[in-house]
Amino acid sequence: MQPLDCVLRAIDLLEERLRAPVQVMEAAQAAGYSLFHFCRVFNQVTALTPFEYLMRRRLSEAASVLSSSDARVLDVALDFQFGSAEAFARAFKRVFARQPHLARQHGVDPRRCLPRLTFDYLDFLARARPDPRPALLGDLDLSGLMTIGTGWGLPDASLINALQAEAALPPGSPLWAVIRASAGDPFAPPLTFLGFPRADWAAQSGALVGKDLPAASALCLTWPAEPRDQAHLLAYLHHTWAAHALAGEGPRELRLCGSLDGRGQLHFHTLYFIQ
Q: 133-274 adopts what CATH topology?
């Protein structure tokens, strides 16, 4: 049996026991591995330790309960196998940067919530484990259009078509997408800007807005071609990589660099997130 299949069997067990006692050894037995080998393989496949996966899943489900019910924080803590409200609050704040009672009032950033990991997601990690590398971005002086985004905030066809209608960009034109998340409201949709470097030849329309981006230090990654892999990459960066590398702080600004092909289709090739 392949490691991925064994890890998924262990995940099945852990998911069944989010609200019940469970030992990592039981998950290792479900996978058919020794405890030592299981922990190593689980981390290789998921980029999480088994204990971390269990705790993050319990906290993510607890956040959902708190934001959608009037259950007491203590009852939620005990239901998800935390020994006390204090231990639950400490763990909750490490992941979501706020106390549980505030999650009831204001919610939590859904991008920090760890969903149940699926075969497709883990297969993506096996094929292309993302490894952000440092990069320096110079000043950018852009013209383009801005909209309220949905989901991860990636520019959709309507925004691309609207920009083409306003600017009549030729094939090969470089384009930048800038996606910014709200720092204060976890449920606020992202703002998405799509634009091109300002140039004399560009037809300036009243609908176009300018955006001046200062030079910045960034981490960059190759942007996948497949939409499904793009979603997996963004999920990994927000709920797993950032939790380790950025002390839980997800990137507030993402920049995508790409260009138009001969048919006017937009293709991004590099993702940057600003440090």
A: Multidrug-efflux Transporter 1 Regulator Bmrr; Chain A (3.20.80)
Residues of the chain whose pLDDT is less than 50?
Answer: 200-201
- 96-149 confidence digits (pLDDT tens): 888 998 888 888 888 889 999 999 999 999 998 888 899 999 999 999 999 998
Strand partners, 180: 191, 253
Report which secondary-structure segment, H or E, holds 209: strand 209-213
Q: Which two tokens stand for residue 115?
A: 């969903």
Q: What share of the chain is helix, strand, coil (3-state, %, to 5)?
A: 45, 20, 35
On whether the 3-127 domain is CATH 3.30.70.330, my answer is no
- Write the pLDDT tens digit of every residue in 125-139: 999 888 889 999 999
- 94 and 110 in contact (C-beta within 8 Å)? no
pLDDT at 249: 61
Beta bridge partners of 147: 192
Nearest to 111 by CA among 140, 142, 149: 149
In this structure, the strands spanning 266-274 and 253-260 are antiparallel
